[in-house]
Amino acid sequence: MSRTNYHFTSESVSEGHPDKVCDRISDTIVDAYLAEMPEARVACETLATTNRVVIAGEVRGPDAILSKIEGLTRKAIHDIGYEQAGFHWESARIEVLLHAQSADIAQGVDAAGNKDEGAGDQGIMFGYACRETPELMPAPIYYAHKILKLLADARKSGAAAMLGPDAKSQVTVEYQNGKPLRATSIVVSTQHIDDGMTSEDVRAVVEPYVLKALPSGWVNGHTEWHVNPTGKFVIGGPDGDCGLTGRKIIVDTYGGAAPHGGGAFSGKDPTKVDRSAAYAARYLAKNVVAADLADRCTIQLSYAIGVAKPLSIYVDLAGTGRVDEAKLEKVLGEIMDLSPRGIRQHLGLNKPIYARTSAYGHFGRAPDADGGFSWERTDLAASLKSALS
Questions:
Q1: Which among 120, 184, 214, 325 would be 20 to 30 A from 341, CA to CA?
Q2: Which phi and psi (to 5°) does residue 228 adopt?
Q3: 117-154 burial by CB neighbour count: b if 16+ within 10 A, else e?
Q4: Is residue 40 classed exposed, middle or buried when 0-12, 13-18 and 19+ CB atoms within 10 A define those classes?
Q5: Which residues have C-beta within 8 Å of that of residue 370, sequence separation ≥ 6?
Q6: pLDDT in tens, 276-319
Q7: Kind of pairing between the strands at 123-130 and 296-303
Q8: pTM for this structure?
Q9: Is residue 128 classed as helix, strand or coil in its secondary structure?
Q10: Alpha-carbon distance 224 to 222, whole Å?
Q11: Which residues on adjacent β-strands are paired with residue 58?
Q12: CB–CB of 191/237 below 8 Å?
């Protein structure tokens, strides 16, 4: 029997965190290729350190994009807000080492004759949903993201102009009877521009945004606070710590509340099932919970490189289900085409919609009118209910 009374912690990092700077650049390049050629292939990795950005990987798309990548990278760094001596959008050295996609990989992925388009790699992908927030996300990661998004908005608007782009948050939530009750501890570490600011000064700036992010009554006199616990935090971003694409995969998903297959999302076009099948698994899990078939749902999908159909579909309703899990697995495979092509078509993934996913989580976000975060829709709920009635 699973525990019902416990504490659980998740962390988030801001768009200015070194790894997230790299995710943003990699996804900006994915968007650039998809905007020109919806069937483009991109596997892009970025490294960032003191006034240096290195971009490497494999692409298949218009050659003209290569000449635009340096400018797009500078714009991404500028949008994040880096204008410091050790990492500046205008003066950072940018090296682009992208080359053509491997023909051996392409032959397994491309459709040919009677062969449908195959998965871009083998792997396992997970999706998860629960009733802890209106967005059907685990509470700790959802509120950790929200704190940093509010701080970033305040920094960019000028309301908290003394803060820098680099920041981290961590929220520990107390659960009683399996439901989130309150925050027992809050951790926020944020870069600041003013060299003379103390931890107490930073807390005075940060605390109103934390209180705004969390539900009413979640913070009280017993909540433990740690704001910039090491003291001064002026040197931030890639100048303070080297960044790499794909190093924050738990931040990107469910904050550790659900399994992760291991593959990163950013820098990959949607033929890569690391990305698209993880989005599909979240979409299906969210629709299962939205249809009131369960209070919690974990879905695993597995693929082999070059093979179109998933090798397996696994569902775990954690004892909260109101339907048979084996029957649900069968229905999910029938209600949505889970081949790479089927996922992309159903969710409309061949669009430049990925740079916006690179910070504050890929899940729990409102669907955009242009197709961004389409995997957050709950438009399958009625069909699922009908199929299982």
A1: 325
A2: 45, 60
A3: bbbbbebbbbbbbbbbbeebbbbbbbbbbbbbbbbbeb
A4: buried
A5: 351, 353
A6: 999 999 999 999 999 999 999 999 999 998 888 999 999 999 99
A7: antiparallel
A8: 0.95
A9: strand
A10: 6
A11: 43, 99
A12: yes
